[in-house]
Each structure stands twice: as C-alpha cells, then as structure tokens.
C-alpha cells in the first residue's frame, strides 16, 4: 500500500515496543500506537493481522473505537473460525469483510514483509451474504491495486480448499522434519548433511511460525482431519504397493500427480486454490507504480 501510494496514512500497532519501533524505522507505518483501541480510531480500513486464535480478543478491544462506515478485514489463514470470533463484535454501520492473502513465507515480523508480496497472488474474500456491495468493491479494488488476484468464495469452502492446498501440506512437512530429526540422532547428522532439495523444501515450511500454525490447526479442525484421513488412506495404499512390489500402481500414481503439477504450472498458478471453483474472480489489472522499490525482500531473507 505504501509503495503504490494507496493510503493517505498507515497506522499500526503491535504488542512489543520493539516491533512498533521497527515498523516506524523501516517506514511501513506513519504512526504507531501501544494499543489496537487507539490505532483504529478514525481509520477507514482496519486490517487484523494476528494469529487466528488472537482475533476474538482484538475484535473485542477495537469494537467501541471503530469509526462509522469503516471496513474491518483480516488476513487469517482460516475463515469460519475468524468470522465466528470477530463478527459478533462488529458494530452496526461497520463493514466486516473477511479475507486471506495466499502469500507469505516462513518468516514473521515487520521486516519479513516486502512490497511485491501480494503481486500476482490470490487474495480470497469470504463476505457474508448481504455485505454492502460498495464496501466490498472498495476493498477489492485496493487489493487489485496491490497486485493481487481477488476471488470471492464461501467461508466453509475456503477452509476445505486451504486444508488441501496449505494446512495439510504444512502438517506433513512438520512431521517429515520431525521424523528426520529423530533419525538424525541415530545416524549422527547424516540426514542434515546429505539432505536433498526435497527435504530442504520441507525444512523451510517446517520453520514457519509455531503460534500461527498451532492456531490454524486448532481452528480448521474438521477440514484438516478430513483431508488428513484421505491422505493416510492413500499413503497406506502406496505403502501396500511398495510391500507387494506393485510397480504398476506406483507408476500410475506418480504419472497422475506429475500431470497435476504440470497443470498448475501451465495455468501460471502459485496456489491451487483457483482449481476449486469460484463465484467471482477479478484478475489484477492495475499494477501500482513504484512497487517494491527496495527489491523483492528488503530484509534480505529467504522466502
Ligand atoms: N505467514 C504467512 O505465510 C501467512 C500467509 C497468509 C495469512 N497469514 C495469517 O496472517 C496472520 C498474521 O500472520 P503473520 O505471518 O503476519 O504473523 P507475524 O508473526 O508476522 O505477525 C503477527 C502479529 O500478531 C501479534 N500477536 C501474536 N499473538 C497476539 C495476541 N495474542 N494478541 C495480540 N497480538 C498478537 C504478534 O506480536 C505479531 O505482531 C495469521 O492469522 C496468519 O494465519 C499468514
Ligand atoms: O510459502 C510459504 O511459506 C507458505 O506456506 C505460505 C502460505 C501457503 O501455504 O501457501 C501459508 C499460509 C497462508 O495462510 C498462506 C500462504
């Protein structure tokens, strides 16, 4: 938003004085406040960017201080639980439009943001029926101006799609790295020394924020358990094929999955969410000038 000149003023808050000072120092906020209650006063748009499990408390804190006509959105990775936590606190005359950018890294904190983070990435919105169309259009055009492709969908559908494309894969990465760590004790660090690219990718994902991901799994329980159940069934089928020497089964399975990967690349997608049907889609048409002036990642971190 800063790089595209999309907001007159950006005001922030965070729990620690260090985070607030960093936000000012690197110029992502014009002003910072010690509390969320102070930060939201007079704001046209309020973006809740805390772990899913912290959304309810923040919503309760800011509710009495929201300006009439303001829009509240969030970036939580789960939507039904966030709606249940936040919506009851939103006063009449304030628009609540839940959202989820499908963009991020394993890094946390203000230095991990970078201006091109949302460019050509999906940003899903899950507004309730009856949401003010003008408020929805306003938020949507802001996200498009930030370079995102916006899609509007039902919250339950979102949670199922993300259980497939993001939540269960993270759980599998966490597990695989845990297994390798157990093994490392036996093999005296060979697993780390000889880790190939596939395992390194798992370790990047498994380095993601523990609080964020604890909250994702606790708040998207049903969909994650559903997909995890299907995953273990398929895993057992592959395990059986290996035990029986059923090369045909393995080859057919890997051929099918290779076609899925190629399909994603041909469609130019970074995420597979779009394959699950959508009720509305707006391709990013506006590319704000001057985006990402400092390079892809000002923190110079791997992402
Ligand atoms: N990192 C990603 O890849 C990614 C992508 C899309 C959406 N999200 C979602 O965005 C949200 C924020 O994640 P992030 O990656 O920006 O994390 P972050 O760690 O960079 O920022 C989270 C902020 O919330 C604060 N916070 C944590 N617990 C709190 C509490 N109990 N009360 C008040 N503040 C609290 C932290 O101090 C921090 O300032 C999460 O809901 C996450 O699910 C993350
Ligand atoms: O690349 C990564 O580090 C991510 O995992 C980002 C990722 C994802 O699964 O795609 C993680 C969680 C979000 O809610 C959205 C994006």
TrEMBL record:
The keyword NAD applies. SUPFAM superfamilies: 6-phosphogluconate dehydrogenase C-terminal domain-like, NAD(P)-binding Rossmann-fold domains. Residues 1-272 form the Prephenate/arogenate dehydrogenase domain. Keywords: Amino-acid biosynthesis, Aromatic amino acid biosynthesis, NAD, Oxidoreductase, Signal, Tyrosine biosynthesis. It is an enzyme of class 1 (oxidoreductase). One of its GO terms (biological process) is tyrosine biosynthetic process. Its EC number is 1.3.1.12. It catalyses: prephenate + NAD(+) = 3-(4-hydroxyphenyl)pyruvate + CO2 + NADH. It holds the Pfam family PDH_N. GO terms for molecular function: NAD+ binding; prephenate dehydrogenase (NAD+) activity; prephenate dehydrogenase (NADP+) activity. Pathway: Amino-acid biosynthesis; L-tyrosine biosynthesis; (4-hydroxyphenyl)pyruvate from prephenate (NAD(+) route): step 1/1. PANTHER family: PREPHENATE DEHYDROGENASE, PREPHENATE DEHYDROGENASE [NADP(+)]. Belongs to the prephenate/arogenate dehydrogenase family. This is prephenate dehydrogenase.
């Amino acid at each position: 938003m800063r790089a595209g000149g999309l907001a007159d003023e950006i005001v922030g808050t965070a729990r620690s004085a260090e985070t607030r000072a960093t936000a000012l120092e690197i110029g992502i906020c014009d002003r910072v406040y010690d509390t969320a209650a102070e930060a939201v006063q007079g704001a046209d748009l309020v973006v809740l960017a805390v772990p899913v499990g912290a959304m309810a408390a923040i919503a309760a804190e800011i509710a009495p201080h929201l300006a009439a006509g303001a829009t509240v959105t969030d970036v939580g990775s789960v939507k039904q639980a966030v709606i249940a936590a936040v919506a009851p606190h939103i006063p009449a005359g304030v628009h609540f439009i839940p959202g989820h950018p499908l963009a991020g890294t394993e890094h946390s904190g203000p230095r991990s943001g970078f201006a091109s983070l949302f460019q050509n990435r999906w940003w899903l919105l899950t507004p309730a029926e009856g949401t003010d169309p003008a408020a929805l259009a306003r938020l949507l055009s802001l996200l498009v101006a930030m370079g995102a492709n916006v899609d509007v969908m039902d919250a339950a559908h979102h949670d199922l799609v993300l259980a497939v494309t993001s939540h269960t894969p993270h759980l599998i990465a966490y597990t695989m790295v845990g297994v390798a760590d157990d093994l490392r004790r036996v093999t005296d660090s060979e697993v780390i020394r000889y880790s190939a690219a596939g395992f390194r990718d798992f370790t990047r994902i498994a380095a993601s924020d523990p609080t964020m991901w604890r909250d994702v799994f606790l708040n998207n329980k049903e969909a994650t358990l559903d997909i995890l159940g299907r995953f273990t069934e398929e895993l057992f089928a592959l395990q059986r094929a290996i035990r029986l020497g059923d090369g045909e089964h393995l080859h057919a399975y890997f051929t099918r999955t290779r076609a899925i990967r190629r399909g994603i690349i041909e469609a130019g997608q970074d995420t597979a969410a779009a394959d699950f049907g959508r009720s509305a889609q707006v391709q990013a048409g506006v590319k704000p000038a001057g985006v990402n002036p400092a390079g892809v990642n000002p923190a110079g971190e791997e992402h």
